[in-house]
Each structure stands twice: as structure tokens, then as C-alpha cells.
Write a structure and sequence with these properties.
Elements lengths: L13 H28 L3 H23 L1 E9 L2 E8 L10 E7 L4 E6 L5 E4 L2 E11 L2 E11 L6 E7 L5 E2 L1
Parallel strand pairs: 1-9
Antiparallel strand pairs: 1-2, 2-3, 3-4, 4-5, 6-7, 7-8
């Protein structure tokens, strides 16, 4: 009779398997929590789309006010750009006859302030702002504004406003 060597097969016991599975599941739960926190830190497409719409709405309001202006006072400096628009008399009681638009470089914001009202921030996170006038003598015929923003899908917005009243720029 031949002696066969005793086979030494090593295997995991049931207890070792259960313990290792529980450790792995705890690690996965911790990792999934970190992923969820990270996912909520990024802006969603909906949030970014809302930011784009806020910029578009503000620029449409800016364009409308520009088209109704009879005089534009323009001031530029290290603190930003200010445009004060004197509007054509619409005959409406209580209508503002002057509106100030400001780009403030310190807060990177674009604001609107009708005469005798409080200033309203239209949008923020502006990385660049410029205004250019096409002139006919001292009268403006076209205003072009370029606005670079962050936190929006579209990084640069361009506004062209044809000025039917040809306001004087001071």
C-alpha cells in the first residue's frame, strides 16, 4: 500500500469570508458618500442653464433701455464702467427718466439702478466687460457690449443695440 502525501489545501472559512465582505461593504458605503458629496458640489446643467437665462434676460433689458435713451453718460475707470441712460419721455406716470447700469470690477457684478430706486444686481461672476460706441459726430448710432462670464454654459455674450434716437454720448 502506497502512502499518499496529505494534501494541504488552504481555504477561507465562512467566518473569514463574511468578515471580509462586511469590511468591503463599509468601504463602499464610505466611498459612495464621498462621491455623492462631490457630485453635489458641481453645478448642474439646470443651474448653469438658469445662470445663462439670467444673463440673457438682463442683457435684453439693457438693450431695451439703450434703444429708448436720448442721452448716454459714459464713465470708465479702475473700479468699473458706468452708463447712465436718460430715457425718452414715455408719458407714463412714475416711469424712470434715468437708469444707471454699472459693471463693478471689485464685485464682478452688473447692476441696474433706476432713478430714485434701489440698485439691483442683474448678474455676477463677470470676468470681463467692455462697451464700444459707433458715433455720428457726438451722437451714438450703435452700442456694442461684450461680457465674459463664468459659471454659465456660454462664456461670452455680445449685445448690439441700434439706437433709433441717436443719443448724445457724454
Amino acid at each position: 500500500m502506497k502512502l499518499q502525501p496529505k494534501s494541504s489545501k488552504r481555504a477561507f472559512t465562512l467566518i473569514e469570508t463574511v468578515i471580509s465582505l462586511s469590511i468591503v461593504s463599509v468601504l463602499f458605503v464610505g466611498l459612495s458618500g464621498a462621491v455623492m458629496i462631490g457630485a453635489h458640489a458641481l453645478p448642474t446643467a439646470k443651474d448653469t442653464g438658469l445662470a445663462d437665462q439670467a444673463v440673457i434676460n438682463a442683457l435684453n433689458m439693457f438693450r431695451t433701455d439703450l434703444r429708448q435713451s436720448s442721452e448716454i453718460r459714459y464713465r470708465s475707470g479702475a473700479s468699473g464702467i458706468e452708463l447712465v441712460l436718460n430715457l425718452k419721455d414715455s408719458g407714463t406716470k412714475g416711469a424712470s427718466d434715468s437708469i444707471a447700469y454699472s459693471y463693478k470690477s471689485s464685485s464682478k457684478s452688473f447692476t441696474r439702478k433706476p432713478l430714485a430706486e434701489t440698485e439691483v444686481t442683474l448678474f455676477e461672476s463677470i470676468s470681463g466687460f467692455s462697451v464700444q460706441f459707433t458715433m455720428d459726430g457726438s451722437d451714438a448710432t450703435v452700442v456694442k457690449a461684450l461680457i465674459a462670464t463664468t459659471n454659465t454654459i456660454q462664456p461670452i455674450y455680445e449685445v448690439h443695440a441700434l439706437l433709433p434716437l441717436k443719443p448724445e454720448v457724454k
